[in-house]
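Researcher: Next sequence.
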Amino acid sequence: MILYYFSLCPFSRKVRALLKEKKLDCELVHENPWEKRSEFMKINTTGQIPVLIDNNSTIVDSSAICEYLEETYNSGVRLLDSSAITKSKIRALINWFDNKFYNEVTKYIMNEKVIINRSPDSRFLHAAQHNLSCHIEYIEYLINKNGWLATDKFTLADITLASHISVMDYANSFPWERSNILKEWYSIVKSRPCFREILLERIPGLTPPKHYADLDF
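Model: Next structure:
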């Protein structure tokens, strides 16, 4: 398998963490999606990452890739559950984090602090922090109710949210003081082997805060 990814892309991190949880070997190819390399555009005409190539098949979209990996490689680890009802809850949360959370929070942070080559626009950063409030309340509710996000077990929903939070945390833009519940949940998630390698990576010219890869914050 070959995965085209960008290190600070939450969707790439989601797939990479799933691969690690399922103990699947995969060659990683770092790709800057904004460069629109002709070789990469031939693989995925949208120019978006991540992209997985397996057995001469090309799978695009992180959720589609994760579904493919779940259905193709059981390996004794199920992150979408076998129950149709539970699976629907997990998928609904994944959609929430990859769409609503991303468009209201993650995208603002990444655009202003990582991608755009200029001083951050404080208006967008304030909007992200404002939008984050309702998300934190909902996430706390889920954790208090289930232990994890979707059920009492670690699932792809937890991986998905942690992937978004981790890129925000790399940019030192997650307000941990606003939620001890979320901080405790994330400290458990980032101590899992599937996130250790990811959290040790560094982007040239952008240094994360000291607590970023610290399991005890």
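Model: The chain has eight helices and four strands. The longest strand covers residues 2-5.
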